[in-house]
Amino acid sequence: MNKPIRIALLGLGTVGGGVYKLLSMRAQEMPQIAGAPIEISHILVRNANKERPGVDAALLTDNWQDIVSDPEVSIVVELMGGMEPAHTYISEALAAGKNVVTANKDLMAVHGGELLDLAEQHHCDLQFEAAVAGAIPIIRPLKQCLAGNEISEIMGIVNGTTNYILTRMTQDGMEFDDALAMATELGYAEADPTADIEGYDAGRKMAIMASIAFHSRVTFEQVYTEGITNIHATDIRYAKEMGKAIKLLGVACNTPEGIEVRVHPMLIPDSHPLATVNDAFNAVFVHGDALDDAMFMGRGAGEMPTASAVTGDIIDTARNLLMGCTGRIGCTCYKELPVKAIDDIKSKYFIRLRVEDRPGVLAGVSGVLGNNGVSISQVIQKASKGGSSDLVVITDTVRERHIRDALTILRSMSMVRDIASVIRVY
Questions:
Q1: What is the chain's mean pLDDT, rounded?
Q2: Would residue 205 show up in a list of annotated catalytic residues for this protein?
Q3: 335 labelled ligand-binding
Q4: CA 156 to CA 205: how far, in whole Å?
Q5: Is 156 annotated to bind ligand?
Q6: Per the residue annotation, which of 205, 244, 340, 348 is the catalytic one?
Q7: Is residue 355 within 8 Å of 314, Cβ to Cβ?
Q8: Residues 240, 119 share a domain
Q9: Is CB count within 10 Å lower at the N or C end of the chain?
């Protein structure tokens, strides 16, 4: 209880600063919470001479060797982000027998298997709760609390920026560009929002969760990603008419033919729990054979929510250190399941076309869809404007390749002026 557990922070940005604050706030209680004091002995920064108000300057270093060669450092907390030098630092820390906590989804989605194997070799903890969904506990529940289940589906809103944008488009009738500008102004979107709005951020998180839930390694490159840049306020209005909402969803399913893992916009019924998750909140919906359904919801990003998850991992690792059982839970990917290509995945589709306002158009569109094995479930056609009208088709479940073949033919037809939107339906 008296000997402190010494940790090193790599990075003092938004998340690193939050972890520093939270550990400082809990310092007096830490012996009771973790079993021993937790003491920050080093903070790795790019410029150790830069003044950082509220931070003890004696802790700052710009030399990684100060940390990795210090035998008193038991836990390395990587909060730098990106692939390098984070990959090198984590690898060297594990090889030196140091436990690691990271919030790095980019790294874990690509090199997670390799790093977890390295941690196992050296009997170290590698914890990464903060890599997915910020403050929401989902990695530990999947690895531990739900370990007795066969998980068949994970579906979630795992990017707060895009959820905020779609909320503004839904509630205020804004177009995408205006909603993105508001998200940027409020700090929800980065100066370069590409990773968020194109679905890459969510795709990395889905790779991590699918790997854990289905016990088979899934990397980011295997996740089909599609963003929200082509969603229009018109699409959202039609969705509302049908009692549905549009969300950017990550979907992972364990099927007899292999794992499906994808990120794309989707129409979901207003009655679904995820339909009511708005603004910058995240939520993950899990289905297991014993569990049935459960949903985890909370703030998915930000200084203190992410610091909450990181600090939880630090405390858990500290407890393991004190009990001599680090490395107790490592990689859970003991299967080698195939990952299905997007062409082989089946979905329902919302297709919005701008068509000529003349007889025979609906029959022509229906004929093309039918010839490609696409059945129609619902049709909405709005009044003509300028010689053209909106034709909205909801299909029955169909294989992706068949809908793509049909769309190629529709684009070549003179009666179809534009295929404005193609969105999957849950």
A1: 94
A2: yes
A3: no
A4: 10
A5: no
A6: 205
A7: no
A8: no
A9: N
